[in-house]
Known about the structure:
- The chain contains 13 helices and eight strands.
- With 379 residues, the chain is α+β, with helices and mostly antiparallel strands.
- The strands form two sheets. The chain has a five-stranded antiparallel beta sheet, with helices on both faces. The protein has a three-stranded antiparallel beta sheet with strand order 6-7-8, with helices on one face.
- It is elongated.
Amino acid sequence: MVRLMESVSAVRRRYQFFVWLQNHLQSLLPHQIAVCGSYQRNRRELSFEVFNSVVLSPEALAQLSDPHALLLRTATAAWVRSRGQPVVLALQTLAQQADDQPFQALLDAGITELLAHGVARPQRPAELESFFLLATPQRRISPAHTVSIDMLMPYLHSTYLRVQATEMEVGDTGVRTGAPRPTAPPAALTDRERQVLAHVREGKSNQQIGDAMGISPLTVKNHVQKLLRKLGAANRAQAVAKTSSAIERGFTLLELLVVMVIIGLLAGYVGPKVFANIGKSEVKVARAQIDALQKALEQYRVDTGRYPSTQQGLQALVVKPANEARWGGPYLMKAVPRDPWHADYQYRQPGEHGDYDLLSLGRDGRPGGEGENADLTSW
C-alpha cells in the first residue's frame, strides 16, 4: 500500500498507467481486465477505454468500452443504486434478464463477474466523475476485492484523471468508443512527417516538438493531423502503434512471451502471499471504519449535545433526525459503511461498555469467536 501511494505521483502517461495497473495495483487488487472511464464535459458523458493483459475479441472490447452499451449502462445504474458502494455484477444473471444475448462475447471470454466502483460529484451521486470495472476470466470476485477497491479508489480516480489531463495536453484525448474505425492503407510519409512522428513517440507536446525542429506549434499540429489522416489513426497513440515494427522500438513475439512468463512467475510468487494476508487486512479495515464512525459520533454529540439513540442508529450521521434542530451533518462523506463481511455495524445507546456500544461480529457473524471471527468493538 505504501509503495502504491509513493508511485502514483509519477504516473502521467497512458503507458505508465498500464504499468502501474499491472505492478503496484495488481499486488493489492488482482485483475487482468481494467475498464476505466472519465466524464468528458464536451460530450457530456463518460468515455471508456480498456486495459487488458489477456486477449479479447473485438466484440468483447466494444461491449466494455462503448458507454451506450447495455453492460456499462447497467453497471453505472447499479452503482448509483448502491449509493456509491462497490458492486459485483454477475454476467450470467444479467444475460438471463436481457431479451437477446448482449454479453455473449464476454461470457465466451470466460468473464463471469465484474467489480464496479467509481467516484461521483459531492452530494450528486448520479453525476459520475470516473467509473471503473475490473475482472479476471475464470475467477470470481471475493469480498476482499470489494474492500480493496473501496480503499484504493481515491488513488485510482486521481491517477486516471491526471493521465487523461496529460494525454489531452499532448493531443491524445484517450477516448475509446469501442467501435473500430475503418482504416485506409497507410500513405507514404514525408521526411518532415517522420521527424514529427519520432518526437511524438517520445511523448513530446506540440510546443516541445516545435522548439526541437525550429517550427511553430501550429505547424506541428498541422503535420500531426496529416499523419493521423495518412495512417488512418484516431489519435497519437494509434499512430505510433501503426508505425511501430520489430526494428522501430517494437517487441518481437519472443520478447512478449518472455515478459508474460516473468509476469506469471511474479504472480505465482506474490499472489499467495497477498491472499494469505487478506483476512488480516479485513480486520484492519473494520477497525479503521469503527474509528471513523466513532469520530463522526463525537462530532454529532458536540453539535447536538447527545449521541444518536438506538432507534435513530448510525443513519443519524448522514440523515437528519426529526426534531434535531442542532444537527450539523452529514458527518460522513458517504453512506454508513458496512463491515468488510457485508454486515451492518451494531450500535446501541446507551451502551453496556460506555456511552454507546459499536461493534462488528467478525467474519462468522456470531458473538465471540477467535481470529478473524472475533468481535471488533469500540471499547
